[in-house]
């Protein structure tokens, strides 16, 4: 049997073990065995317990802070390269450090470009990710990038809600392209929030461009961090006469007082994927798994077939 026909091996970084198990199950293989040795000072060393020589290897791990999560991905990529894996795909459901995609002020790093360089240097021959914070980050890589869209899993969920008078909303100007893509599929109207920030995570003013009166509003964004923008937008829309406000956010970072903001807000529901494990449960948060989508695209990569049918936007 040629090496291209050998079954691929799927491994998980510690932070994404639960998601990786779902992906492996959906793919139809067992998750590979990795042992992580830890030193008393915090240094750690992952090791594959089985041979990967000549195989296609998928290493699954979101790179949200702390930096240990990114470091573990890098060490596992390097280990696979040195163990003679034939193809090494870094499956990064949430690509952390992506908000640093340009120099937006003097004397700062372009963190997303640095991380892309590190991942390639470590040994990745392909990158698979979902809903990058900025599409152009794909261009930071010299290797093939499969950039998946969470709309593939969220839109069927929205359809099942059977809502009439839907309006899709973007919480800021930067997300308008995503909002228009959702609205095109749902044949709905679009509104956009215009916000001004005093500093990171602090909004000074917010205004609404468009009408939400007597509409069921669905806010769409690539991530939710502190929840300040989203909950402020939801409260504003209810004041303007919306019937209900839901939010769809691919990556549930949910740091700081995010859970408190969500519970106190007029948001009816927050729909997220499992790219990042939730810190705690909430009656307002609904998780839609991205595992079947990643498993399907991984199958197609293994079989060298087109993945274009997976793109709803």
What layout of secondary structure does this protein have?
Blueprint: E1 9-12, H1 17-27, E2 34-38, E3 44-48, E4 56-60, H2 67-82, E5 87-92, H3 111-122, E6 126-130, E7 145-148, H4 151-160, E8 166-170, H5 176-186, E9 189-199, E10 202-209, E11 216-224, H6 228-239, E12 244-252, H7 258-264, E13 269-273, E14 285-288, H8 291-302
Parallel strand pairs: 1-4, 4-5, 5-6, 6-7, 8-9, 8-11, 11-12, 12-13, 13-14
Antiparallel strand pairs: 2-3, 9-10
Pfam families: Pribosyl_synth, Pribosyltran_N
EC number: 2.7.6.1
Protein name: ribose-phosphate diphosphokinase
Walk me through what this model shows.
With 313 residues, the protein is α/β, with parallel strands linked by helices. The protein folds into two domains: 163 residues, 3-Layer(aba) Sandwich (Rossmann fold); 138 residues, Rossmann fold. Helix content is 29%, strand content 27%. It has eight helices and 14 strands. The strands form three sheets. Strands 10-9-8-11-12-13-14 form a seven-stranded mixed sheet, with helices on both faces. It has a five-stranded parallel sheet with strand order 1-4-5-6-7, sandwiched between helices. Helix 1 crosses helix 8. The longest helix is centred in the first third of the chain and has 16 residues. It is globular, with a radius of gyration of 20 Å. The protein starts with 8 loop residues before the first strand and ends in an 11-residue tail after the last helix. The mean pLDDT is 93.
């Amino acid at each position: 049997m040629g090496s291209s026909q050998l079954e691929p091996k799927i491994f998980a970084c510690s932070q994404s073990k639960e998601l990786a198990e779902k992906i492996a199950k959906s793919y139809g293989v067992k998750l590979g065995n990795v042992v992580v040795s830890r030193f008393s000072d915090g240094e750690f060393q992952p090791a594959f317990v089985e041979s990967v020589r000549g195989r296609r290897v998928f290493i699954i791990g979101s790179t949200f802070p702390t930096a240990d999560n990114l470091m573990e991905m890098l060490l596992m990529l390097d280990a696979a390269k040195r163990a003679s894996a034939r193809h090494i795909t870094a499956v990064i459901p949430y690509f952390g450090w992506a908000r640093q995609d340009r120099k937006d002020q003097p004397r700062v790093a372009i963190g997303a470009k640095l991380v892309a360089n590190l991942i390639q240097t470590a040994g990745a021959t392909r990158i698979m990710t979902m809903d990058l914070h900025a599409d152009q980050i794909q261009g930071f890589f010299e290797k093939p990038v499969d950039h998946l869209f969470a709309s593939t899993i969220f839109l069927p969920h929205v359809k099942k809600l059977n809502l009439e008078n839907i309006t899709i909303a973007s919480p800021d100007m930067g997300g308008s392209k995503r909002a228009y893509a959702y609205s095109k599929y749902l044949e709905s109207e679009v509104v956009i929030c215009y916000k001004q920030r005093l500093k990171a995570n602090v909004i000074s003013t917010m205004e609404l461009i468009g009408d939400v009166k007597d509409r069921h509003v669905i806010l769409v964004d690539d991530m939710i961090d502190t929840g300040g923008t989203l909950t402020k937008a939801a409260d504003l829309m209810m004041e303007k006469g919306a019937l209900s406000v839901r939010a769809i956010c691919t990556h549930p970072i949910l740091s700081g007082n995010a859970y408190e903001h969500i519970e106190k807000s007029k948001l009816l529901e927050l729909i997220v994927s499992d790219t990042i494990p939730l810190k705690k449960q909430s009656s307002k948060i609904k998780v839609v798994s991205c595992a079947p989508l990643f498993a399907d695209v991984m199958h197609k990569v293994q079989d060298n077939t087109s993945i274009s049918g997976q793109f709803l936007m």
